[in-house]
Design a protein that fits this description.
By secondary structure, the protein is an alpha/beta fold. It has 15 helices and 16 strands. Strands 1, 2, 3, 4, 5, 14, 15 and 16 form an 8-stranded mixed β-sheet that branches. Helix 5 packs across helix 6 and helix 6 packs parallel to helix 7. The longest helix has 18 residues.
Length: about 400
């Protein structure tokens, strides 16, 4: 095994137990061996060559727990339509929205989808991300859903990153089809095929008036349960449909968007251990006005994560730093909450326990920043202060 690395003279941001002043991190292989105040460095490590961080801030590497990185085309014209007064629902019911991206994605080869997704992935990595979730959901047929998931796996082989794949077959009802028949005859059999091919880490759905009902999503979740796959849910984004309560009953890893969640929903999520994933990019881009119930989540101890929701229609965002700023500015989260939201809570939203925090035994996935405080990460707009990204103990 290579000699352990010793990073010294660093400010440490530890989402559970912050360490002020001069801190040190010892890395062995792909794991953190020790972290804490430099003056408490164990004798076993004092002889190691020191890498002076010159007072820079070290945080866990960032985690994007909600993306739709793999898709064909773009929806810039719909952006113009919204500026002209059309709502998200108006566009969807007129045949735009998700359905328009489905056509572009079905017409794209795997190589095309990979080539289009790589720049989006690279933008996230350039800001210190090392773990990223990627959903399917723009195929809505067996062939394209499987192609999307294969491309998502290929992204993880093409770059030094940890990719988690989520099957989102229940994203929208394909044009001209019945929702119930689609769930039973296409969505669930495709989930089975994706599982058989080893392409799925979790299962998601869109519970909304323009998508699927709680009863329809429950059938998908039952199928996921039979396959021993965890579930997630797009819930309460545009209206209150009961998605949070459904997710809580299935002990979902996360519910995402949740602008229309209630205090009762917060209690249910807390009891289930489900993470609330806030997506300020979509809130901003769609010019929404209904704020997620941050106070209720705080009061009931619901962990809050953040994601970019990178997608072509409602959140063409590839910056977790900007998502942090938006969460603070629009949702009044604190900078410390925003950092936890893209580290330890984002890990939990993906069912991961080995990353997202600076602690001995965890993965050595770190971000080194040219800043002094956590607040600076969420404060600037359009500026990337990343000094180094460390993935599995290696700078890359």
């Amino acid at each position: 095994m290579p000699q352990p690395q010793l990073l010294t003279n660093a400010r440490l941001a530890m989402p559970v137990a912050p360490v002020d002043g001069r801190g040190a991190v010892v890395i062995g292989g792909d794991r953190i061996l020790w972290v804490g105040p430099e003056d408490a460095l164990p004798a076993d490590y004092t002889s190691l060559a020191r890498q002076d961080m010159e007072g820079r801030l070290i945080t866990p590497a960032l985690i994007d727990c909600h993306t739709h990185l793999v898709h064909g085309g773009n929806r810039a014209r719909e952006f113009e339509m919204r500026l002209e007064g059309a709502s998200y629902e108006d566009i969807a019911r007129a045949g735009g929205g998700i359905v328009s991206t489905v056509e572009a994605t079905r017409n794209a080869s795997g190589d095309d989808l990979l080539a289009q997704a790589l720049p989006r992935l690279d933008a996230l990595l350039a800001e210190g991300a090392t773990t990223i979730e990627v959903k399917s959901g723009y195929g809505l047929d067996r062939e394209t859903e499987l192609r999307m998931l294969r491309v998502a796996r290929a992204l993880g082989r093409a770059r030094p990153v940890r990719l988690r794949t989520t099957f989102l077959g229940a994203h929208a009802v394909p044009k001209g089809q019945d929702g119930d028949r689609y769930i039973d005859e296409i969505c669930i059999p495709t989930l089975q095929a994706a599982h058989d091919e080893g392409l799925v880490d979790a299962v998601d759905g869109f519970c909304e008036g323009i998508a699927f009902s709680p009863a329809q999503i429950a059938r998908v979740f039952d199928a996921a349960r039979r396959l021993d796959l965890p579930v997630k849910l797009h819930a309460e984004q545009l209206s209150h449909q009961g998605g949070c309560q459904l997710a809580a009953r299935y002990r979902a890893l996360s519910v995402d968007h949740v602008e229309y969640a209630t205090e009762a929903d917060a209690r249910a999520l807390a009891a289930a251990g489900t993470v609330a994933v806030l997506l300020p990019g979509a809130f901003y881009f769609l010019r929404e006005a209904q704020l997620p119930p941050i106070a209720a989540f705080r009061a009931h101890g619901v962990p809050m994560a953040l994601g970019t929701d990178c997608n072509p229609g409602s959140s063409p965002l590839t910056s977790l730093l900007l998502a942090m700023n938006m969460a603070c500015t629009l949702f009044r989260m604190t900078p410390d909450e925003a950092l936890r939201a893209v580290t330890i809570h984002a890990a939990r939203a993906l069912g991961l326990t080995d990353c997202g925090i600076l602690a001995a035994g965890k993965r050595a996935d770190l971000a080194v920043w040219n800043v002094e405080t956590v607040a600076e990460l969420a404060y600037r707009i359009g500026f990337n202060p990343l000094h180094a990204r460390i993935f599995g103990g290696r700078a890359c």
